[in-house]
Specification:
The protein has about 325 residues and is α/β, with parallel strands linked by helices. It has helices at about 15-25, 45-55, 70-75, 75-95, 135-155, 180-195, 215-230, 245-255, 280-285, 295-305, 310, and strands at about 5-10, 30-35, 60, 100-105, 160-165, 165-170, 200-205, 210, 210-215, 235, 245, 260-265, 275. The strands form four sheets. The chain has a six-stranded parallel β-sheet with strand order 2-1-3-4-5-10, with helices on both faces. The chain has a three-stranded mixed β-sheet with strand order 11-8-13. α5 links the parallel β4 and β5 (about 160-165). The two termini are about 35 Å apart.
């Protein structure tokens, strides 16, 4: 992938896609193709086919996806399955048909089995039952990941995949109910501080363990893998560090300056008890993350404060 290569970033306005575009431009890649949803509906097979035939990108970063937290996945499983299955199949298939040299597909650590051995290695995929609260999303993502592997196996397509842990950073979705845990907590504690609330209530009991990765670190790894990795098996993307949701809420509260009490609603689901990735594969290739959680949270909160329209979503 040289500086003049024609590169398509699907989902460039999302948190991951925008980070990949930032990383590409920072390293001198200027021939970047993007399309908004209004310009190209990735769930429409013919529209995607026409786009690839017209543009013929050499490299594709498939970061587009319908994403959300526990409540969003519970409320709309059919939408999460259909939208993700259609868009990823359309993009991957058209990229292959139109001679794309290499494609990187973004998976998610939540598609690993609910009770996978910890830390989770890449080969634990599909070894036992999925987490029920996001099964629809997981099934769609697994299908995209395996389709890339099958195209490689059957036709020799150099299509690879990366499996990120929980992500956060600039461009995140801060919706109060449909976002992931970290941005949802940032908004909740920010609003509690602004309103002078004495308490903030969080879901579950705070015991689940989670790993978090700053999105620009993921973008760095995506470029590294596009240039240095070709293999059927996915590559885990994470920090190898974890903390409880209770510890996370306390860290978020300190970051936004909230000093009230934190209460726990144990009638709400905890989700998967633990999700820690084994990141030894990426480390063995010579890559590691650079942004610690405390610093990443500070940068993310600055992004939240500087983007009032995003905070209203």
């Amino acid at each position: 992938m040289d500086r003049n290569s024609k590169i398509y970033v699907a989902g460039h306005r999302g948190m991951v896609g925008s980070a990949i575009v930032r990383a590409l431009r920072a390293e001198g890649y200027d021939n970047i193709i993007t399309r908004t949803h209004a310009e190209l509906d990735l769930t429409c097979q013919q529209a995607v086919r026409d786009f690839f035939e017209a543009e013929r990108p050499e490299y594709v970063f498939l970061a587009a996806a319908k994403v959300g937290g526990i409540q969003a996945n519970n409320d709309a499983p059919a939408d999460f399955m259909y939208d993700n299955m259609m868009l990823e199949m359309n993009v991957i298939h058209s990229a292959w048909q139109c001679g794309c040299r290499k494609l990187l597909f973004l998976g998610s650590s939540c598609i690993y089995p609910r009770l996978a051995p910890q830390p989770m290695k890449e080969d634990c995929l599909l070894t036992s039952a999925l987490e029920q609260t996001n099964e629809a999303y997981a099934l769609a993502k697994i299908s995209g990941l395996r389709y890339c592997a099958y195209l490689r196996r059957q036709y020799g397509a150099d299509f690879i995949s990366v499996m990120p842990t929980n992500l956060y950073g600039p461009g995140d979705n801060y919706h109060p109910t449909h976002s992931h845990v970290l941005p949802a907590l940032l908004r909740r504690f920010h609003e509690a501080r602004e309103k002078g609330l004495d308490t903030v209530t969080c879901w579950g009991d705070g015991s689940p363990l989670r790993e978090f990765m700053y999105v620009d670190d993921l973008a760095s790894l995506c470029l590294f893998l596009m240039r240095n990795y070709s293999g059927e098996e996915t590559v885990n993307a994470g920090t190898g560090k974890e903390l409880t949701i209770r510890e996370l809420t306390e860290l978020v509260a300190r970051t936004v300056g909230y000093t009230g009490a934190i209460e726990w609603d144990t009638s709400k689901p905890n989700g998967t008890p633990r999700k820690l990735l084994d990141v030894s594969k990426a480390a063995a290739m010579g890559w590691t993350y650079s942004t610690e959680l405390e610093e990443g949270l500070r940068l993310t909160y600055e992004d939240f404060l500087s983007n009032p329209m995003r905070a209203e979503r």
